[in-house]
Amino acid sequence: MMGTPSGRVRQDILGWLKDPATHFPARYARDPAETGVTAGAVAAKLGVSRRAAAAHLTLLTRLGLLRTRRIRCRTHYRRDEIRIAEVARLFEKGW
């Protein structure tokens, strides 16, 4: 997955979400490390449409690498560190 241009974009997203406060400014006094970030924030950082960013975020969520949280009418995304560690262990074992 990570060898393609799309895979590199998703890898960047996962990296940014590891320290969201550094990569995404807090909006409306919300801490992005606590609440997560929206597809719109990811889209702005990538320089793509919100729909394109949402497609990457949806895939990462379906893979179990991100968790979602609804706040008002927006979905916020955060890393699922436990699942990411499990996947990393699979690859370390030569899966």
Order of helices and strands: HHHEHHEEH
Mean pLDDT: 90
Structural class: alpha+beta
Which strands sit side by side, in order, in the main sheet?
Answer: 1-3-2
Distance between the termini: 14 Å
| SS strand fraction | 5-15%
What low-confidence regions span 5 or more consecutive residues with pLDDT below 50? none
Q: Percent of residues in helical segments? A: 55-70%
Largest sheet: 3 strands, antiparallel
Please provide a brief summary of the model.
The chain is of the alpha+beta class and 95 residues long. It has six helices and three strands, in the order αααβααββα.
Tell me what you see in this structure:
Helix content is 58%, strand content 15%. With 95 residues, it is of the alpha+beta class. α4 packs across α5 (50-62). The model has no long low-confidence stretch (mean pLDDT 90).
Task: Compile the SSE list and pairings.
Layout: H1 5-18, H2 20-23, H3 32-35, E1 37-38, H4 39-46, H5 50-62, E2 66-71, E3 74-79, H6 81-92
Antiparallel strand pairs: 1-3, 2-3
Helix pairs in contact: 4-5
Based on the model shown, name its key terms.
95 residues, alpha+beta, 3-stranded antiparallel sheet, 6 helices, 15% strand, globular
